[in-house]
Specification:
alpha+beta; Multidrug-efflux Transporter Regulator, Chain: A, Domain 2; 9-stranded antiparallel β-sheet; flat; transcription; transcription regulation
Length: about 290
Amino acid sequence: MNRTVVTIQQLSEQMGLTSRTLRHWEAEGLFHSGRDSSSGWRTYDEDALQCIRITALLRRMDIPIKEIQPVVERKSVFELIRVIENRIAALQVHQKGLKRVEQQLLHTLEYLNITNKRTSVLEELLNEMENVFMSNVTERSTFKVITLPAMRVAFHIVVDVSPEDKAMGPLMDWLKSATLLGTARLFGGNMKPMPSSTGKPYGYGMCATIPEGVVVPEPFQEMLLPGGLYAKLDSDEDIGGSWNNLMNQLSHSKKYTSDPTRLCLEEHIRNDHPENSGNLYDLNLLEPVKAK
C-alpha cells in the first residue's frame, strides 16, 4: 500500500483549503488524519487525500456534508450520481421559489411606478421591507447575549501559515497530562498579524481556563480574561461567514454594540465524536458587547 503522506500545512497550500476547514470536515467523519511524531501536525495519506478531493469538489457545488458522507464512505460513482441528481432537484425547487420572489418584486415595482407615492409612504414601505429582511435573518441564525465570568487562563500564541494546530496541540497535551482537560473551557482567536491571504503567516492564540494554584509551565503564559457581556453565535462550517453574520446582526441591534476594548473569542465546545475521530470541537463565536 502506498504510504505517502502530506502535512496539513502542505495540503492547505496545495489545495487552497484552510486548516479550520480540514479539521471541520474531519470532525464530520469524512476522513481521518494521522500525526507527525516530530512536529505534531496532522498528516493525510492517499485515502484521506481522495476523500478531501471529493469533499472539496462537492462543497463547491454547495452539496451538504451529510450528503457527501456516503460518497466518501463508498467511493461509488453511482452514489456520486445520486447525490448530484438530488442536488439538481433541490436547485429546481429553489429556482421556483426565486421565480415567485421575482414576480412579487415586479408587482411591487409596478405598484410604485403607477401610484407614485410620496416619500413618507415610501419610507414606511422601506421600513417594512427591512423589518421582514431582519426577521428572516433572525430565524436563520440569531445571536444571544451571555455573561462570561472573569477567568484565569493559560494561553499559547503561534504565528504561522497554519497556526491553529500548533497553538492548540501543545496546550491540549499539557491539559491532558495535568488532568485538566475535562474541566477546562477552551477559547481561541486570531492575533496580530491578522489573516490576510492564503499562504501568508498570521497569529492564532489558544487559551484554557485553569484553577487557582495551578502553575503554568513554559512555553505557555498566564492572563486574566475580564469576562463581561458577549454576543454568542454558533458557527457553521463557514467560520468567516458566521462572523460576518454575527457582526451584521450587531450592526442592526438596537440594544447592543461591539466593545473593542476586549478580545473577541471562539469557544471550542466538545462534541460527541469519539477520540481519534478528528477534531473534537465545535465553535461558538463570542463578540464582546456593551449596552447602547
